[in-house]
Every structure is written in structure tokens, then in C-alpha cells.
Amino acid sequence: MPLEGITLDRLLSTILNNVLNCFEYYRGVAYLWDKEKENLVCHGTGGLSEESEKIIRTKPLNVNRHDCIEIRAAQSSTYTYIEDPTNGPNLTKIDLKISHQHGGRGSLLFVPLRSKGETFGILGVERYPTQVESYPGQFEITEKNIRSLMLFVNHASIAIENARLYAQNARKINYLVRLQEIYRELNVIMDMDQLTEDILDYALSLSQASSGAIWCCDPGTRRAHLRLLRGYPSSQRTDIRLSLDQHPFKEVCHEQRLALIPELTKCAYSLPVSPLKGSTILIPITYEDQTAAILQLDHRDSSIFDETATEVLKIYASQVGKLIENVKLYKRLLSERRFIDNVMNSAGVGILITDAKGKILSINPKIEEIFVTKSSEVIGKPADVIFSGDQRAIFHIIRETMRKKKDTEKEVNFVQKEDELILKVNSFVVFDGDKRFSGVATLIQDVTETKRLSESLRRMEKMAAIGTMAAGVAHELRNPLSGIFTTIQTLTKELACTGEQKLEMDAVLEEVDRMETLIQEILRFSKPLPLTISKGDINAVLKKCVAALQDKIKAKRIRVLCEAQDETAYLRADMDKIHQVFLNLLVNAIEASEEGGTVEIHSRSIPFSNNGRPKGIEIQVTDHGVGIPPDNLSKIFDPFFTTKNYGTGLGLTICAKIIEEHNGEIIVKSENGRGSVFTIRLRK
Ligand SMILES: Nc1ncnc2c1ncn2[C@@H]1O[C@H](COP(=O)(O)OP(=O)(O)OP(=O)(O)O)[C@@H](O)[C@H]1O
Ligand SMILES: [Mg+2]
């Protein structure tokens, strides 16, 4: 309140001094009404002794207590003239006392200060009778003098009223400016504890209260608990709860009314936390139409909680209520946002969100992993920045979803770091609350493993079914076949076949023998394979396979390239069966190659699968031969599928079975006419 009084008092003193000089008065005083307290308060003096000035300034005159000329003059709407205030029938004791305090008084003239038909103060001047000799004819205040002063004061009233309003408003303006500053400072606080502390501290500095507290209200239990205290002795208890159904908290909480207790010593109840003397104000802080907290401020002098201060504190409370609402909202949004982030981060599927224009709003870590990208590099850019090469098919899906405003689901194959991935892409159209298209959410799931698993499951089921049937047939064929074999042998001997006949008989025996071998193969394949696990070097196994096939390799002049990442690559497996696998694969590769062709064998360490942790070994057998037509690709692992005249079609079936029993993987990539790559992955 730095502006209060200064401008007004200075103005009144200046006016008074001018009046004294121009109209030749001895002393002068200006009083203004304090309507609330019904006091006449001195705001300006002229020509007074220091002692008189002190008395007049510190002792306001009260309507009820002081029956004196000043009060009567201020209550009348016209001037008051008292020729001799020290002697006369209409004078009261107080008048005489005042005259005495000022060392006697001369003729007095009081003129009302009026604005809009209301008297807001008086201006009084004095002409001293002892001056009679020095200024003959001047000791009396004439009618002309009165008219002149009235005229002057009427004009001055406007200026005084303006200054008074300005002084009053200046205080309010000061408060409001301060409120704005405080609001700005509180507005950036997002922590509830910090905000609560600052709310109380700023309330204390704003109101100049000496102590204060914040009570948090719980409408459920109808209780408030003491949250924070300032300016109380450290011995003050803090674990206080109080009922919200008791006066004066009841009115503050339920009716959301401000409660002012002007004199604590005189009230019938005691507040749970309050100074012994002085006054207290309780202000509701509301949030979502409920009283969230009660702000308590105390001061020894109740006059600090005047109308203006109360009004300002009300505005302050409503502002901080909004701030509390904001912080709660912010916290809720933050936790919702965190929850969504957690969902995005922990989802096993890739999530890509684009806005209505196809710009990336967010991607989750799974997308970063699948497409080897970083969220910070792509946010705000068009969705196609993530996808290159075959992956662009995904962008087309998103674009189609945007264009048709219809959910889309598709599978996309693409190669990444030599791995062929199968991705299931689901794009959903997102609408806002007003049913306006606002973007697309795309879920991308790596289904490579699942697909492979279901493919191998399908293969195993097929193998099992055919195996059971084949085993039955083989079993039934075995006895007649051995009968045929023995009969032919006996016949050859008994008939003493020679020449052409002997050759034919031998050919039959040879075919029967081949059938027997086939039956054995079928029976072996149809039973579960018992594995004999030992530690072995896969590179040594590969070399052994190549050595065992030297005849075939030489016969077709095949160049075999063996390339191993490490000299030795140990793993735990049934090494004989693994040997059988590579033998079969190499035989197929040689058979598929042209004369003089090349067969490559590569081995390297891998983390086993795209997402798997365990270490493994990957071996690739590559040929540049005939390749496998796409239609046959899904059949080559089926039992008895062969395109060769003398093939049994069991080679790859057995390979797949062995690899599966080792929990490994067998993957084929082939291009018709250009060659094939068989990839085997085994755990170490
Ligand atoms: N490297 C390859 N290049 C081209 N085709 C192949 C290759 N490997 C296998 N195939 C195709 O897969 C079929 C099945 O192979 P699989 O090894 O199971 O049987 P097979 O070689 O025909 O006979 P066998 O039982 O004697 O091995 C082959 O007949 C051939 O059509
Ligand atoms: Mg084969």
C-alpha cells in the first residue's frame, strides 16, 4: 500500500497552505470520513504546532464518542462558523478540551468537502482574535470570506475527491499488480507440495499477516487436516484434524464463504490453530466447485483485513484454486501419458501413429528395432522416411488406410540383414471426439517365428500322418518281400540259372534289396529319433561330409568352397545325425548343380534368432544350380516328394526332422534357375 495517503495528504496540505496564505487564516485542518469506522481522520494540516499536529493526526474523531464542532460540521451539508470556540452556550466539553489542547482557538470556519451530493470530509480554518490589533478589521470571518472559501473549496473538492479515489484505487491497483506477479510465479509450479508452500507464503506477504496455515479438506470424512503452518511457535502441534461441520469452518467449507473473526479474544470458540490475540480470516480455496482447502491468516491488528484486503484475498483464493486444478490436471495427464508410454514401450508389437496428413506422431521402441531407426529422427516427418525398399509396402498400407478411411490388414515380407521377415501390418483409422479423421494407428507384428513354427508344425503333422501310414504299409510289405527274396534266391539256385536268366534274377533281387532299404528308411523315419548328444565341432563335421562325397564331387567336377567364420565352432548335438543332415543337403546341392558348378558352405556365429538371446551357429549350403520352382518350395520337406528318378523324397524330410529335434531351424531360399540356399540354425 505504498501509494495510500501520500498523494492525498500532500494535496490536502498544499490546498490548506494556499488557503492560509491567500485568505489570511492562521491555522487550518482537513478531515476525511472513514465511513466504515465512522471516524473523521485528519489528512492535512497547515500552521499547526508540532504538538497540535501530533494530537490531531493520531486521534481520529468518532461519531459516537466525540460530540464536537468538527463532527457536527462534517455531518451538515453547509458551512459551520463559530466565532469563539472557547466560550459559548452551544459548546460541549470536548470542544473546550480540543480548544485547550491547541492552546486556545480563534474564530473557526468549517466548509464541507462534497462530491456527488455527499460530504466526504471538511476543511477547517481559524482566524485568531489576538491578531485584532495587528490586523484591525480582520479578526472576524465575514460572509464574503465564507463565500470565497466555499467557492474555493467547491473547486478543490473535485481535486480532493479524485486524489482520494486515486489513493483508494492505487492500493487496489497495487494489490492487483502484485496478484498478477504472484500468479505468474505460481503458474509455473507443477509440484503440489511446492505450490502449497508458495500459496501460503504469498498469502502472508500479500496480506501482511503475521501467521497463517493451510487446511486440506476431505469431503468424504468431512474433516480438514492441518497441511502447513507459518509464523507459529515451533511447539505448535501439527497433527491436527478438525470437523468441517463446526463453526466457523462449516460456513467456509460448505457455503464457500470467507469468515473474518475480528477479535479472537471476544469470540465464544477457540480456533484449533491461532494466536491468542488479534484477528483471523478463513478463506475457502475451491477446486472443481468443492472446497479443497482453507487458507487461514492471522494478525494482531484486525484492520489489516479491511474491505480491499478481503476482496483481494478472495481473488487470490480463486486464482490459486485454479492453479491447484491445473496441477492436478497436469499430474493426471502426466500419469496417463506415462501409462501410454509404458504401453508403447513394453508392447511386443511395433506401434506407429501418424496424423491426418501422414506425419509421424510417435513410434515405439519395437518400430525402432524392426526398422533400425530412431524416434528423434523421424517424429514430425512423413511416414515413408521409415520405410525403404520392400518395406515401402507398409507405407502403402498406411496410405491406403488414410485414403479409404478403412482399417487394413496385410502381411509384408522383406529382407533385413539377410533375414527374411514376415510382418503382419494392421492399420486402424483414428477419429476424434467429433468423428473427424485424425490419423492412423499402425500395429506391426513380426510374425516370422510364428509363421515358421506353424509351418514346421504343419510339416511335422504331415510327416507323422504319412509316417504312420507308411510304417504300416512297410511293415506289411516286409514279410512278403522277404518271402519273395528267399524264393528268388532258392529258385536261382534250384533252377541253376545262368546267363540272361541269372542276370534277370539278380536284377529282381537287387530291386527287392532296394525296396528293403527303403522299408528300413521308412520305419526309421517313422519312429522318434533317439538323440545321442555330445560336444562337437560343426566345422569338422562339414569337412567330413565334403570328404565323404569326394567321388560325386569329382564326377561332376564341382568346386566346393568352405568358409568358416571361426576355425572351430563347438556345439552340443547328435553329431552323427547332424552329419547326416549336411550329407543330404550337399548331395542335393551337387545334384542340382551343373557340371563344373560351385557349392558353397558358410558357417558363422549368430544370436540364434531375430529376438532370441542364446548364441547359436548358422550354416548355409548354397548352390547355383537349377533352383526350386515356387510351387514346389512348400512341398520339398514332405515325405516322398521328389523330382528325381531315383530319389526317395525322404532326404529333406529327415533333415527337417533332425533339425527340429535339435530345436533348430531350417530355412530355404531358392530362385528357379539360379540356385538355392539352405540355412540351418542350431543352438550352441
Ligand atoms: N539344392 C536343391 N536344388 C534344387 N532342388 C532341390 C534341392 N534340394 C532339394 N531339392 C528338391 O527337393 C526335392 C526333395 O529333396 P529330398 O532330398 O527330400 O529328396 P530327393 O533328393 O529327391 O531324394 P533323396 O531322398 O534321395 O534325397 C528334390 O527332389 C528336389 O526337387
Ligand atoms: Mg536328396
CATH 4th-level superfamily of the largest domain? GAF domain
CATH architecture of the largest domain: 2-Layer Sandwich
> Helix segment count?
18
User: How would you sum up the major sheet?
Assistant: 6 strands, antiparallel
How would you describe the shape?
A: rod-shaped
CATH topological fold name of the largest domain = Beta-Lactamase
Hetero compounds: adenosine-5'-triphosphate, magnesium ion
Helix content: 40-55%
Percent in strands = 15-25%
Question: Taking strands numbered 1, 2, ... along the chain, how are they ordered across the largest sheet?
Answer: 3-2-1-6-5-4
- Which CATH class of the largest domain is shown? Alpha Beta
Mean pLDDT across all residues, rounded? Answer: 87
Which class do the helix and strand fractions yield?
alpha+beta
Task: Considering the chains and any ligands shown, give keywords for the structure.
684 residues; alpha+beta; Beta-Lactamase; 5 domains; six-stranded antiparallel β-sheet; rod-shaped; binds adenosine-5'-triphosphate; binds magnesium ion
